[in-house]
Amino acid sequence: MAQVSLQRVVRHCDRLLRTDEFTDYEGAVNGLQVENDGFVSRIVAAVDASLATVRLACEARADLLIVHHGLFWSPSHPWTGKRREMLRLLMENRLAVYSSHLPLDAHPTLGNNACLAAALGFRRTKPFFHDKGRHIGLSVEIRVDRDELRARIERAVGGRVHLIPGGADTCRSIGIVTGGAGGSLKLAASEGVDTFITGEGPHWTYALAEELGLNVFYAGHYATETFGVRALASHLSEKFSLSWSFLDHPTGL
User: Fold this and answer.
1) Do residues 168 and 83 both lie within one domain?
2) Which element (helix H / strand E) includes 17?
3) One domain, residues 28 and 97
4) Weakest mean pLDDT among 63-77, 149-163, 186-200
5) Domain limits at 37?
6) Of residues 169, 146, 163, 141, the one with CA closest to residue 219
7) Average pLDDT over residues 67-86
8) From CA 192, how far away is CA 180, in angstroms rounded?
9) Do 204 and 238 lie in a common domain?
């Protein structure tokens, strides 16, 4: 079985994703979040770091877990109850955790937005959705029927998509920001799109989308963010000759 230095893998990920260049949401902690004994032989990827996915990683006998949503979004103490159980599993199974949030959203080839755009058949995309000092998403100029676009998105994410039909039946300028960008419809509209694809948003965005004349597709926070961790793990597998697998633990949200 191939074995590679953990620090070598981490350095490569940090350079590839330009981790140090990003300002992220408080608590994201991009990069290595948990060390192991220093080596990687099997990689697993998941959208979220949680007790459930840590258990799945241990069952898979992995020593590196790649995630989009890491361990430290909220105060992470005290380490009691389920948190203590997760810590025990991480330590006893020598499982390292690497997390990448906005850097993985924004990557031009491995990112959630780039991979979703490719799955939808979009080419010649442009930077879109300026947030935290940089563009996070992608946009494309393309003429497509709204119902056809919905069918494409459902095929790409493998599930039902919720549509707010606030705009025209024909979509001409489409923006993509995976995850939970539904609360930023005004920002999306201000950048000139008539259709916005994201993961989820609050109830009040229905009326706002109608006011803005914006078609909005909510394709699932989880479902739209499986792409990046899969792509990153596959890339690492090829570069370092390591096996990898995806741990599917859907939230339904």
Assistant:
1) no
2) helix 6-17
3) yes
4) 63-77
5) 4-101+226-245
6) 163
7) 89
8) 20
9) no
For 179-217, give the DSSP string.
Answer: SSGGGGHHHHHHTT-SEEEES---TTHHHHHHHHT-EEE
Check residue 77 and give its pLDDT: 77
Full DSSP string of 207-232: HHHHHHT-EEEE--HHHHTSHHHHHH
The confidence band for 218, taking pLDDT boundaries of 50, 70 and 90, is very high
Read off φ and ψ for residue 137, nearest 5 degrees: -105, -165
- Residue 15 is predicted with a pLDDT of 98
Q: Peptide bond preceding 78: is omega within 30 degrees of 0, i.e. cis? A: yes
Extract the tokens encoding 197: 């694809």
Residue 123: its pLDDT value, please?
94
* Closest C-alpha to 163, from 176, 150, 148: 150
What are the start-end ranges of the E strands in the chain? Answer: 4-5, 31-34, 39-40, 42-48, 64-69, 96-99, 126-131, 134-145, 162-165, 170-176, 195-198, 215-218, 243-246
For the chain, how many structural domains are there in total? 2
Q: Residue 143 domain-assigned?
A: yes
The DSSP 8-state label assigned to residue 31 in this structure reads E
Only one residue has tokens 């940090």, namely 14
